[in-house]
Amino acid sequence: MPNNLKTPEDILRVIKDDKIQMIDLRFTDLTGRWQHFSVPACNFGLESFEDGVEFDGSSIRGFHEIQEPEMLVIPDPASPFLDPFSDKRTLALICNIRDPVTGQMYTRDPRFIAQKAEAYLQSIQMGDAAYFGPILEHFVFDQVRCDQSTNYDYYEIDGTDTDWSAARHSEPSTGPVSASKAPYLVSVPPADLLQDVRTQMVGILEKIGIGVEARHEGIQSVTDMRFATLTRMADNVMILKYVVKKVARQRGMAATFMPRPLFGHNGSGMYVPQSIWWKERPLFAGDGYAGSSALMRHYMAGLLEHAPALLALSAPTVNSYRRLAPGFEAPVHLGFSQRNRSMACRIPSGASSPNEKRVEFRCADPSCNAYLAFAAMLMAGIDGFDNRYDPGQPIDKNLYDLPPDELARIPCAPGSLEEALDALEADNAFLLKGDVFTPDVIETYLSYKRTAKR
Question: Which CATH superfamily, name and number, covers 129-452?
Answer without folding.
Answer: Glutamine synthetase/guanido kinase, catalytic domain (3.30.590.10)
